[in-house]
Hints:
By secondary structure, the protein is mainly β.
Amino acid sequence: MALTFGQHPARFKLDVRSRPRMYDGAMRHDLMEILVCPMCRAELTLTADREEDGEVVEGKLVCSGCRETYPIEDGIPNLLPPDMRD
Ligand SMILES: [Zn+2]
């Protein structure tokens, strides 16, 4: 197999901006569709104490399985198991 150099070198350009964003960190109601309890994988119920522009700024997530509670602070849900917080 012959390699030809100098003709139309392939150029690969990484465009970081075109990468799909999975999750920007904000806690939104539609995020509930992908969030599950890290302990038992059951569904979480969102309770919003304060919302801004459709994002839950303060609130909590309650597991429907093991009843564990996960706090939401500054719009970020803390899904660490209770003994791993702090
Ligand atoms: Zn659970």
